[in-house]
Amino acid sequence: MGTMLSPEILATLERQAIEVPSWAYGNSGTRFKVYGTDGTPRDPFEKIADAAEVNRLTGLASSVALHIPWDKVDDYGALRTYANDLGIELGTINSNTFQDDNYKFGALTHEDPAVRRKAIDHHLECVDVMDATGSRDLKIWLAEGSNYPGQADMRGRQDRLAESLAQIYARLSGDQRLMLEYKFFEPSFYHTDVPDWGTSYAQVAALGDRAMVCLDTGHHAPGTNIEFIVMQLQRLGKLGSFDFNSRFYADDDLIVGAADPFQLFRIMFEVIRGGGLDADTEITFMLDQCHNVENKIQGQIRSVLNVQEMSARALLVDHDALVAAQRSGDVLAANAVFMDAFYTDVRPELAQWRAARGLPADPEAAFRASGYQAGIEAARVGGVQAGWGA
Ligand code: RM4
Ligand code: MN
């Protein structure tokens, strides 16, 4: 074994779990075109099979998030058993109130009580699904807002959102939780009803302990210090989950760590600082990505490895040296401690460690050599399971 990753660091990495999204395996594209891909799953079961392949090769992805209605099935118990037999769990249930004509002017915030009722009922149905799948988290992202000044009563919409969320929250039981995701723009451009962590925090704080904020790394304005938000939400006990991805411009949904690995490192450093990788962590680390031009399964494999790699580097930060430099006001020494960890290449040691656990040293190469892709391309003729097209 190498010498950089201590037994304590390896023990932390050992329990790291990254949830993969079912929609990463379906057809996807941009606002201009959804591409068909050979081997596209024909049903949610086949998406789960692909997710299980990511876990089999990396040991990192033991659960898969579902999107309702994209992943609707007749028997969620059967879906759960199917997943469990492949060694994975069903994770976060994501609601969808952004693909229905009724929701043109809002869903949980809509002026019309009948439309709000429909949107609330959809979320209650999602909790029914959670009861059957054993999922802990209901994640809500809302495509609600307005395009023109004066178009909407922003205050009234915030009040209606609070009422709607309270009805959904009241339906949760046991250890089920509600995650409210924020995004600063799109599909509306003048105002968005949950644009930032502060709004999400205000809404979930009013609900109760089991309502928390979901931080999607692609949902901030350029230049935003995301790790500051991570720190603050952890401080407040309200960082419930991540949607990891990376972006150059906006909500690009690219492979996490691809555009800015240093940002992922900084985020993981704060996560660790706040106890987010401790054994009792309650944070769900999920990917929210689409692979439009690259192989989807291999893209997911690289994504979970990127999260692991930047976590390992963040765990290498010499805490004592950092604190000493900070306390003595030695700005450059503090920064150097931080950068030393970031610049440490942990890939050879992680490969050795994988091999020692019976996993492929190079999961992407193992995937390419496995024949899995050729197998699904031959078997799944006509698969059109999709996110955007559904
Ligand atoms: C949204 C948001 C949600 C995701 C959908 C597909 O932009 O990030 O998390 O469920 O996209
Ligand atoms: Mn998201």
Explain how this protein is built.
The protein has helices spanning 7-14, 44-58, 76-85, 113-133, 154-170, 197-207, 226-235, 261-273, 296-315, 319-327, 331-342, 347-356, 363-370, 372-379, and strands spanning 19-21, 28-29, 34-35, 63-67, 89-94, 137-140, 145-146, 177-181, 191-192, 211-216, 239-244, 284-287. It starts with 6 loop residues before the first helix and ends in an 11-residue tail after the last helix. The strands form three sheets. Strands 1-4-5-6-8-10-11-12 form an eight-stranded parallel β-sheet. The longest helix has 21 residues, at 113-133. The mean pLDDT is 97. It contains 14 helices and twelve strands. Strand 2 and strand 3 (34-35) form a beta hairpin. The protein is globular and about 60 Å long. Helix 8 (261-273) crosses helix 9. It has 390 residues and is of the alpha/beta class. Bound molecules: beta-L-rhamnopyranose (RM4) and manganese (II) ion. Beta-L-rhamnopyranose is lined by residues 94, 141, 181, 183, 216, 243, 251, 288, 387.
Short synopsis of the structure:
With 390 residues, the chain is of the alpha/beta class. The chain is 44% helix and 12% strand.
Summary keywords:
single chain, 390 residues, alpha/beta, eight-stranded parallel β-sheet, two-stranded antiparallel ribbon, 14 helices, 12% strand, globular, binds beta-L-rhamnopyranose, binds manganese (II) ion
